[in-house]
Amino acid sequence: MKTTLYTYRRFGDRYVVSVANHAELSEAIMSFCTATGIAAGSITGIGAVNEATLRFFDPATKRYVDKTFAEQMEVANLTGNVSQMNGRPYIHLHCVLGRADYSALAGHLLTAHINGACEIEVSALDGSVGRRYDEETGLNMYDF
Ligand code: FE
Question: What is the pTM of this model?
């Protein structure tokens, strides 16, 4: 299957996905989950980006602090999950990014621009997991 954002092949309840060069990673994963109807599952991946915006959640303020890094970086690890909120896929991604000097950045991944390749595996669960906003933590928590 081929779109402008990704190509993929399905293996039972698992999918191997190649995100297109120059695509925005979160948009591509969101589009993939919408198209395939995946409403619960996990995501792992590796790749390369030339810009990424990471978020750090401050429990004291219950707000995310965003920071953009515009440089070539290896996606040393992408780990996340798929759930549903307000009838749409909810993608929760964390990543470790490797810089040219081999140091690493890490955090919650908001957006990333692929520059090279990005290879993802999505493991789909049979069903859906919802989320709801939790006042105490300020986070969108799983809602079972
Ligand atoms: Fe997070």
Answer: 0.95
